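Help!! Second protein's tokens look totally different from the first
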Amino acid sequence: MAVGVAILGATGSIGRSALAVLERHADRFRVVALTAHRSGAELAGLVERYRPELAVVVDESALPTPGHRPPARWLAGREGLLEAATHPAAEIVINAVVGAAGLEATLAALGAGKRLALANKESLVVGGELVLQAMRRGRGELVPVDSEHSAILQCLAGGGSARVRRLFLTASGGPFRDWTPEALATATPAQALRHPTWSMGAKITIDSATLANKALEVIEAHHLFGVGYDQIEVVVHPQSIIHSMVEFTDGSVLAQLGFPTMELPILYALTYPDRVPDPGTRFDPIRAGTLTFQPVDPRRFPAFSLGVEAGRVGGTAPAVFNAANEVAVAAFLAGDLPFPGIAELIDRVLAAHDPVAVDSVGTVLAVDREARVMAQRIVEQRC
């Protein structure tokens, strides 16, 4: 019988890629629940096509009117999202919700014993210990969807986590990897959204331009694979062919390669630890061409350094970093903040925060809220 899959964030770039994978493997998987934040009309089209049992629009104001809802059980709000995350027919839950809003769904899915294919990096960033506790308590399974963490998982299958010396996460460097700090002061949202190798949503594309996304991935890797921050390194790899590398204690290095596509790590998360035949893009080393690497320049990417340091500090510091970054990115896209102002805003909010232990979802949400209020106040004072 086909395995039931719930997709949280079905109308985003990850959600659409996941649906494409599921459609190619309809003999193995069936869609049982789909959610969207506010794209109610688009979700209705997906419901018409994939016929899930449950459809959820988190923003109640965007819920399609009864006459425009294809057959399914329709819900709205946070409770609907959590119901999709724990749907009894869903053996696998793909969490592609954007931002810290995905944490509660992550905890709910793992607490219900689901396999969680995690594309919401903020869950581990803001509530890493809570996520691991929920997984142990509910006997759920956590499999990463991020291409970098999927690559590490695949490399570890060839060497074993107990023999790891270092993890290497690769970063494309985004559209500004060769810009001077002076030139970055004039960077526009349109320029920042022109990612050279990946097609993603606006928020994560800006995070790629600042390398804030890579700081989040370092924190994720720390929790996912149980390695210290001193064992995690980031290198800029403009071609985005090598997604991550693992160095083992004997000096051997394993790397996972592939052309930039999220469909491969999504498929691996669905079938892990097995591999199934797929007609996706085949790798061609000649077409891949020359592969190059360079260090992360802290002058170009100060947000990266701030995020990694927040991870080292621990407690609620990563949640504050994430919240301030989300506000800063929104302000930059709205034209209320210059590009260098993103890191400056994050720095100010972090400097004002006294980290505490992450002991509950309530603590995380309260800190997240306070950081956003402070960050928004700073933006308004600039305008």
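Here's the second one for comparison:
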Amino acid sequence: MSVNHETNKEQALYERACHVLPGGVSRNIIYRKPHPRYIARAQGCYVEDLYGVKRIDFVNNIASLVHGHAHPAIVAAVYEQMQKGTAMAIGTEAEIRHAEHFIARVPGFEKIRFVNSGTEAVMALIRTARAYTGKYKIAKAEGAYHGSYDFAEVSQSAGPSNWGELDSPNSVAHTLNTPPSVLSDVVVFPYNDVDRTLAILDRHAGEIACVLIDPVPQRIGMMRATSEFVEAVYHWTRKNNTLMAFDEVVCFRVDYEGAQAAYQVKPDLTSLGKIIGGGFPVGALAGKTEIMEVMNPSHSPLPFPLSGTFSANPISMTAGRVAMELFDREAVEKVNALAAVAKKQLTEAALQAGIPLCLTGDGSMFKMHFKEQPPRHYRENVDNDTMKKAVSTFLEFMYDEGVILVYSNGCFMNTVMGQTEIDKLSDAALKGFRHIRPLLNL
């Protein structure tokens, strides 16, 4: 049956896309059946589709737009810089100003190197740790997402059929035909489980270059790493000539100084991305001067050569600096407080609808679980088919109600939201909770 291009603009676009893009998309996250959704424009905390329908955007390009879409101050700064040039193979002051902001902002940041994405930041982190320690294995939590990189992807999608025993999780490939050598160089541990993690790390004590932790990991369930867990890993790394690394590409937003502000001990290296680009592609690696020196090109031989055609381009640097300056302590506290109100109203809506609900997360980001107790680790966050159906149905219902949620059933707040948007969220959620109640087999 032919598509009426006047009445189904999205289907028409998707048909065109399928002729030139694998699966019709460049980002798998937007794929859906029968076709992806398409946005015509976005402003503030609202997006408008091809039919002129506006919806509240709680996704904010997967946590990267902490000030929403097309923030006037960022747009003005970028427009001014665009007229001076967008990218050049010569340095600009924009990079230095952005770096100075971070070094002043976060006590543990002594030097910083900018790249083009969160994935690149983690890649640089791993390679920096190897160059500095002289070791090559990394350790990461089962289920944690750290970008699209062979080593970082290991066990991010492990399941009951292949994940092995919790005392010794398997290193499971995420991409078909990942080299076995990659799997053997990644040590997998259960998140927030001190005893099991230390026992696993001990078995590889002389080989691990860094232990990589996302302190508020979305894919694992968005539970914060406990102080006990972080401190145990930190002290283990001190004893074993290993670096403790944080991946704060997503969760840096939870506090003015990042998620690491909550802990007494600090990571040696931190990967950044998302909000630090002000809506443009960006990534960064920050850490102690001694460690970051492995990238210093004045050294010969250079332990870790790192370049990138668009790294530290003045557009991303300018937009990012303005965004971070706007995201001052007052702005952080305000958006975090708004998220707390949202969680309270959602909890009340779930009680009214008669469904179980618990919320995890921190600061301006949270995730909804349709169960009585939050997951303790990745394996408890893997939903069965019944729960997957309930979540997908809820997300579709919310979209139709004018509210766009994160695919994992959560929200990333932005600073231009207010009580009006939170009320719309909880009102729509109450209807959505009632809609999916029969699917939860209550």
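Reply: Different proteins will give different token patterns, so don't panic. The radius of gyration is 22 Å.
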